[in-house]
Write a structure and sequence with these properties.
The chain is 4% helix and 49% strand. The mean pLDDT is 93. The chain starts with a strand and ends with a strand. Strand 7 (68-73) and strand 8 form a beta hairpin. The chain contains 1 helix and 11 strands, in the order βββββββββαββ. By secondary structure, it is mainly beta. The protein has one helix at 102-106, and strands at residues 4-7, 10-12, 18-24, 33-39, 46-52, 58-60, 68-73, 78-83, 92-99, 110-113, 117-121. The strands form 2 sheets. Strands 2, 4, 5, 6, 9, 10 and 11 form a 7-stranded mixed β-sheet that branches.
Length: 123
């Protein structure tokens, strides 16, 4: 059951920025964590970032720390991923996903996920 809709992907030059959005239905909002993972051809799935529903704590993949920022707007049930200083290795399909807990999310135990949005970083 897809209850998350991603948008905001596209083509950007190295060093550029994109902001991804994830529109979540009410049924997905009672989970402990929501965030973004990505999949690039020939590479393992990576959990990029997630945010805790209980206290707003955020978690980031080491390679994106300092460049990406996750946030949420509870009024609109939207989760964002601001991506700055993009690098070619950030090229991937980015998916929004929920987890029952932060730990579950980090382990890839997702409760729901979207269809993904393509991010391409190239000159």
């Amino acid at each position: 059951q897809v209850q998350l809709v991603e948008s905001g992907g596209g083509l950007v030059q190295p060093g550029g920025s994109l902001r991804l959005s994830c529109a979540a239905s009410a049924l997905t909002l009672n989970y402990g964590a929501i965030g973004w993972y990505r999949r690039a051809p020939g590479k393992e799935r990576e959990g990029v970032s997630c945010i805790s529903s209980r206290d707003g704590s955020t978690y980031y993949l080491d390679s994106v720390k300092g460049r990406f920022t996750i946030s949420r707007d509870n009024a609109t049930n939207t989760v964002y991923l601001q991506m700055n200083s993009l690098k070619p290795e950030d090229t991937a399909v980015y998916y929004c996903a929920t987890g029952r807990t932060v730990v579950a999310w980090e382990l890839g135990d997702f409760a729901s996920w979207g269809r993904g949005t393509q991010v391409t970083v190239s000159s």
